[in-house]
Specification:
Order of helices and strands: HEEEEEEEEEEEEEEEEEHHHHHHH
Largest sheet: 5 strands, antiparallel
Shape: elongated
Number of helices: 8
Radius of gyration: 43 Å
Distance between the termini: 78 Å
């Protein structure tokens, strides 16, 4: 009774606020905290109060840090809040590939269904809510390299020749085949081969495949290794142990391939041993080359293309920013060249250069830019409260006109300080009288210029 109440509350929340609507879609999972590699049943539900006039194709679900397998769709009828809904349920298995939070993204589902009281299908797009699960790491005490979650595991092996007549220089192939149910081939761990004294091992590329029906999935991994016996005597092929965890009954199981003792007989013809070893090494290198995926600068082609596209977009944005910045700078710079600030800076520059001729010209340009009501620069200077500054300016003029000394800026510091203070006083007074701010474009040095 309590379970039924929870179900009614759940569907009530889903349909809340859908007054006048006849559609709903949602995602459910049967486990929110699986182990890495443990399958989680994901069900995508799509319902309508009428019927669907065309098929629904949700497609496979792409989930980061997980692999998904689609199984089947099943028609269903539910009664929710006293209203009958017809729908379709899509079944998937989700296999976490790493620990941590995993999110099933929002799914867009295209449907075609008539409104209530009508028969003509209307195209609609339904969106599910994102669903999160948290994948647990491999339990402490268990080797992540050997971890496997499966409902069952079968292990078999075969040898390329009888082990009773092995002699030095013989090469024997051993193939171990593992078949596991309710998992993908990607999750069957590689065999860890133990080194053996007096024997060289050369592994081949494994063969893997996954088989899927409407309700189950099973996988197979076949691995072949070549044993080259290099010394006579007794050789022990160690026990091979394969472990798996059954999620259904939450128990660990082991499958063993027992150890084998081989008596390696001597061989008078040892000249061929080096060539056999070289041939096996070559085959192993070729296998490794075949297994190595095609990479561009260490990246998969799809990832490389994605980075290239993102890089080109970033470059395009950067170019646009630079063009805008350059245009903005040029406008500001030209405005600065026409401003009173630039004219005054030229005056200070002439004083620093100890050049009265340049000073005389630049001070007139500055005076014109200033827009002063005074008739001459001398009248403006006379408004200064700095007696020392006025005295130095008078001495400068006297040196020029009375003694014909064109470059007499022995008191540069006093002159520059006096000119700067004079300019500051005048501009502040100008602002007050005209009741303007520096952001006003009519101001001598608006903020749009330097």
């Amino acid at each position: 009774m309590v379970k039924r109440l929870y179900i009614l509350i759940f569907f009530g929340l889903l349909t809340f606020g859908m007054s006048g609507q006849n559609l709903l879609s949602y995602v459910t999972v049967n486990n929110t905290s699986p182990y890495v590699g443990q399958p989680v049943q994901v069900k995508v539900n799509v319902y309508t109060t009428t019927w669907f006039t065309s098929g629904i194709d949700v497609g496979n679900i792409q989930v980061d840090n997980a692999l998904t397998v689609y199984f089947r769709s099943v028609s269903s009828v539910k009664t929710i809040n006293g209203k009958k809904y017809a729908g379709v349920e899509f079944y998937y298995n989700l296999f976490p590939t790493r620990e941590g939070n995993i999110t099933i993204p929002v799914l867009e589902i295209h449907v075609e269904t008539p409104k209530e009281g009508d028969y003509k299908g209307v195209k609609r797009i339904l969106k599910t809510k994102a669903k999160s699960i948290t994948a647990k790491p491999v339990p402490l005490g268990y080797d992540p390299q050997k971890w496997l979650v499966a409902n069952s595991l079968s292990v078999s092996q075969k040898w390329s020749m009888s082990l009773n007549e092995i002699k030095v220089g013989d090469v024997v192939e051993r193939t171990i085949n593992r078949s596991a149910s309710n998992t993908l081939s990607e999750f069957i761990p590689a065999t860890l081969w133990d080194s053996i004294a007096g024997v060289s091992l050369y592994s081949k590329r494994p063969k893997v495949n996954t088989k899927k029906t409407r309700t189950t999935v099973s996988s197979n991994r076949s691995e072949t290794i070549s044993y080259l016996f290099e010394k006579e005597g007794e050789v022990v092929i160690p026990t091979m142990t394969y472990m798996y965890w059954n999620a259904a009954n939450k128990k660990f199981y082991q499958k063993n391939l027992d150890s084998i003792i081989i008596s390696v007989k001597p061989n008078a013809d040892l000249a061929m041993l080096a060539s056999i070893k070289k041939s096996l090494q070559k085959e192993t290198v070729e296998e490794a080359i075949i297994e190595t995926p095609f990479l561009i600068f260490g990246l998969a082609p799809k990832t490389f293309i994605k980075y290239v596209v993102l890089g080109l977009l970033a470059l395009l944005i950067l170019v646009k920013i630079l063009i805008f910045g350059y245009s903005f700078f040029i406008k500001r710079y030209h405005a600065y060249l026409q401003s009173e600030t630039h004219a005054f800076n030229q005056v200070i520059k002439a004083v620093n250069a100890n050049n009265y001729g340049t000073y005389s010209k630049t001070v007139q340009v500055w005076f014109a830019k200033l827009g002063s009501p005074f008739l001459s620069v001398r009248q403006l200077i006379d408004t200064s409260d700095d007696d020392e500054f006025k005295k130095v300016i008078s001495g400068l003029n006297e040196s020029l006109f009375k003694y014909a000394k064109k470059n007499d800026f022995s008191n540069k510091t006093v002159i520059k300080k006096g000119l700067k203070q004079l300019r500051k006083n005048y501009l502040n007074d100008y602002q007050r009288k005209h009741e303007i701010t520096k952001t006003d474009n009519n101001w001598l040095n608006p903020t749009k210029t330097f």
